[in-house]
Amino acid sequence: MEAFGSSIETLGILLAIVSVSLYIDLRGHKHAREETLYGAIKWSAFWILLALGFYGYLWARVSKEWADLYLAGYALEKSLSVDNLMVFMAIFASFGIKGQLQRRILYWGILGALVFRAVFVVIGTGLFLASPWIGFVFAAIVGWSAIKMLGNKDDEAGDEREDYADHWSIRLTGKLMPIYTKLHLDRFFLKHAEIVENGFSHAVTRKGSVYATPAFLCLMANETSDIAFSFDSVPAVISVTEQPILVYAAMIFAILGLRSLYFVLEALTRYLVHLEAAVIVLLFFVAGKMALQSWNHVIGDTGIHISPQASVLIVAGTLLLGVIASLLFPSKDRASSPDLPQI
Description:
two-stranded antiparallel sheet
């Protein structure tokens, strides 16, 4: 195969597409309103078509061989990102955050993911030697989140919390940085003057000039989980598509559609009553998969390996079972609702 050509042109077009896409995404989600199932599906389709459009550009301007490598990397990154969506859902459930604040956190999380992916692609795979140990940590966190979701399944766990003073994130970071222990609109930070002016001084971990809010801690949890998943996805995509521009392009287009895909799943869990149980099962699966991968690298190869293709089949099959169960055995409230689903 001949060398990859038109790299400067391709990079320029890629950066232009990303800039315009982020602007469109920001403008399209500017107003605070609940994400509907139809809206999430529409945006997901838009991002997929955009990725396929870039594939068409590579085919026409470069070569079919390089275009196929990009498409293979995109499909792989998209498949691997499904596990990440499960973890995002668990983190939001842990923080009791939903609605517009979820969208804001995911938006900034995706911006961070684009930056970190670029760094990882430049560094290559050398950084990923530490990933097995990180995998054990996140396997425990995901498993614990699944247990918490399972315990809260019959409660009003979806309501936003009023005070996070006893939340694990506050206990973990409260002595390291000043934190305001309650959500305040969609803010990530509050100034000390705002804390004093609004009488919030009783709800801080310690005095400071600027205070982080639980929304920022949730953003950091999502960002950290994405970094942990990138330890597997980046080397995998590099192994398929060695050209840095194609690797980054595949990751960018997969990440740009991640938020919309999340809201497709999140919206369905509101309308399909047994889908949340399927998500809990998948969280246990993701935790086990991460622990198994880390064990194979750190302690010894068990001979058991879950490929991305098998992972996607398990995720899709489990979600399908949740959908079928919801249609066959709807709750009384949903069965009597005339407007299911809301689109």
